[in-house]
Amino acid sequence: MSRFATYFLMKEEDVGDYTKTALKLFEPDAVLTVKEIGDGNLNYVFRVVEEATGKSVIIKQAGESLRISSEMKASTDRNRIESEILELQNQLAPGLVPQIYKYDTVMCACAMEDLSDHEMMRTAMLRHQIFPHFADDITTYMVNTLLKTTDVVMEHKAKKALVKSFINPDLCEITEELVFTEPYNDIYQRNLVFAPNAEFVRRELYEDETLHLEIAKIKFGFMSNAQALIHGDLHTGSLFVKEDSTRAFDPEFAFYGPMGYDVGNIIANLFFAWDNGYAYGKTQFCDWIITTVVEIVDQFKEKFLACFEECATDVMAKTPGFAQYYLDTILEDTAACTGTELIRRTVGMAQVKDVTTIEDAEMRAYVERINILCAKELIQNRSAYGTGADYQAAWFCAAEQAK
Ligand code: SR1
Ligand code: MG
């Protein structure tokens, strides 16, 4: 019996044999080199290369406990969810996700396209690199993967079958806690608050009950609105980029939830890149970030309405006025979820290098206050955020207030 017939967590020395004998992606006599390259919070990622031919593949395996903390567990079924979603998204948004070659529900591992000619977007953001096509690519990805998995477009029983197949309780629980609960009360005492802002965080987040009520509403919207098959963790560490290409990967947090969660995550993570650019005096880069945020909101709206017009199948959804109404609810969720992501990455346990690597403590404290003040405005007045220009104005207003 193959030693890969029962699950175990692989090490570099296991993965070559696994790729050849279990997945049959190389000839049995192929000479392979394997390197573990993962730097995410959850999984193990191996790059497998056959030097003789230059052929390479990525093997990603889910462990039973998470990399970020051995005490945190999450179902290894997340690897199946990720693989199946990438296959589906490859049809909905071709060229904007990595290709899945095979996945294995025993070892909870998948083999996917090696995108080593791309770079993780967060790493590129830390070098203040500009990607002129990004707004166009990411809005095409979001409109196609989101709107086309809703009841507006899909046959309703087929959509419900996807809801069932992509039920993702463990990973959703992580989001419900880390994004929608702990940043406001630190109930598990695992928040990471930057010491110079401790008093500010206590006042603005822990003691603001008006804010808590709005977060409770947004949390229950996230848990109850099975609107679209969302990526669920669409930050710049879930994107590979190069000059003329963008690929969204790592959709293991995917489930049927509100579309605005994905759009808001993208916007917030661009603001984190601005934080870093500002701290290091990169004016051109910061200008590009703001322009990109504006373009993302405005292009998302435009492409969404065009796609709705072209693809809607539900007879009542085609009622004049419904498309705009539906979009307005998504924009409201987008503002809310931009806010919740800004807050949770600033004070919660899963932070972002864009902010944590800022060496000047005063500068870091300042940009963290911008994140929190802008977030609160977006959350509390979320129905007023309908254009890219609205986000630009909110960001610079918070930058003034945070001084
Ligand atoms: C315990 S996992 C922490 C975070 O990493 C993932 O990328 C998600 O963003 C999650 O919230
Ligand atoms: Mg991830």
What does this structure look like?
The relative contact order is 0.11. The strands form four sheets. The chain has a five-stranded antiparallel β-sheet, with helices on both faces. The longest helix is centred in the last third of the chain and has 29 residues, at 283-311. It has 403 residues and is of the alpha+beta class. The chain has 14 helices and twelve strands. It has two domains: 3-112, Phosphorylase Kinase, domain 1 (2-Layer Sandwich); 119-401, Aminoglycoside phosphotransferase (APH), C-terminal lobe (Aminoglycoside 3'-phosphotransferase, Chain: A, domain 2). Helix 9 crosses helix 11 (322-347), helix 9 (259-279) packs antiparallel against helix 13 (361-380) and helix 11 (322-347) packs antiparallel against helix 13 (361-380). Helix content is 51%, strand content 13%. It has helices spanning 12-22, 78-92, 121-126, 134-147, 156-165, 169-178, 198-206, 209-224, 259-279, 283-311, 322-347, 353-356, 361-380, 388-401; strands spanning 32-36, 44-50, 55-61, 65-66, 69-73, 100-104, 109-112, 119-120, 228-230, 239-242, 245-248, 255-257. It binds 5-S-methyl-5-thio-alpha-D-ribofuranose (SR1) and magnesium ion. Magnesium ion (MG) is lined by residues 40, 233, 238, 250.
Give a concise summary.
By secondary structure, the chain is an alpha+beta fold. The chain has helices spanning 12-22, 78-92, 121-126, 134-147, 156-165, 169-178, 198-206, 209-224, 259-279, 283-311, 322-347, 353-356, 361-380, 388-401, and strands at residues 32-36, 44-50, 55-61, 65-66, 69-73, 100-104, 109-112, 119-120, 228-230, 239-242, 245-248, 255-257.
